[in-house]
Specification:
This protein is of the alpha/beta class. The protein has a six-stranded mixed beta sheet with strand order 5-4-1-2-3-6. Helix 1 crosses helix 2, helix 6 crosses helix 8 and helix 7 crosses helix 8. The longest helix has 19 residues.
Length: 257
């Protein structure tokens, strides 16, 4: 924590490493918004329960209807959380709209007992057919996930992003997902299991002062959703580079091929 705000949300003091003055912190607050500033600079959260995916945010952006089919020809990004033991493996996909927002509305959960071979077959063979303009898929490469990633076809048109879960990585993933919602980049279909996991997810401060996240009964859908957000963020950053022509042509009304 390097600062705090008073009852009027004005910066009260600065403990920044390089003595960042209060007026510069005020400038930062005006750019990123009060809520995000409180989280990142004051370690102050939205409510007493420290729910990162707070209700007003979910109500505002959980507005997408369930798609009639599992497939899209729009530019897409995805996230895969490989289930372990008693957890499901989950695939989450978002598509880029002509308004340059992303609608995260495709969810696929594999039943417990589904072999990883079946899942990799789906990603290698079926996913490219149903989503021919997939840009990136971020996958859980933790533990057994590392071996599964090696089975993914390197010749697929989409980029596979390997993600090793750790508490610092989870903090980054959650903050990226929440930030994308707050910046109106993302809307999503309020899948029942995802909403349940959102409501049970908690942000806490450890005894050492570090931010940690604790799940409820499960976090398969949240992890997959967050990985999808990471892929989206990466694709948008790459939009100025390797994906620029595809994203630019799409924003001008063309169908990216």
């Amino acid at each position: 924590q390097i600062t705090d705000v008073d009852e009027n949300d004005n910066v009260a003091y600065s403990r920044a490493e390089y003595r960042l003055p209060i007026d510069e912190l005020e400038t930062v607050k005006s750019v990123i918004g009060v809520d995000k500033f409180k989280r990142e600079y004051c370690l102050s959260f939205q409510d007493d329960l420290s729910i990162p995916y707070y209700q007003n945010l979910l109500d505002k952006h959980g507005i997408i209807e369930e798609p009639p089919i599992f497939g899209s020809k729009r530019l897409c990004c995805g996230g895969v959380d490989f289930g372990k033991h008693r957890n499901n493996s989950v695939l989450t996909i978002g598509e880029l709209t002509p308004q340059m927002q992303w609608d995260i509305k495709f969810f696929k959960a594999w039943e417990l007992g589904t072999t990883y071979k079946e899942i990799t077959h789906f990603i290698n063979k079926i996913l490219p057919v149903k989503f021919p303009n997939m840009l990136k898929v971020a996958v859980d490469a933790t533990g057994v996930g590392s071996a599964i990633v090696e089975s993914l076809d390197e010749h697929n048109r989409f980029e596979v992003m390997e993600v090793l879960f750790s508490q610092p990585k989870k903090v980054m993933l959650v903050e990226t997902a929440v930030s994308n919602l707050e910046e109106d980049l993302i809307n999503f279909y309020p899948h029942k299991k995802l909403m349940t996991e959102f409501s049970e997810y908690r942000r806490e401060i450890s005894d050492s002062g570090k931010i940690v996240f604790k799940k409820g009964a499960s976090d398969d859908f949240i992890d997959s959703y967050n990985l999808c957000n990471l892929a989206i963020t990466s694709a948008m950053q790459d939009g100025l580079n390797s994906n620029r022509q595809r994203i630019r042509s799409y924003s001008l009304g063309g169908q990216a091929l």
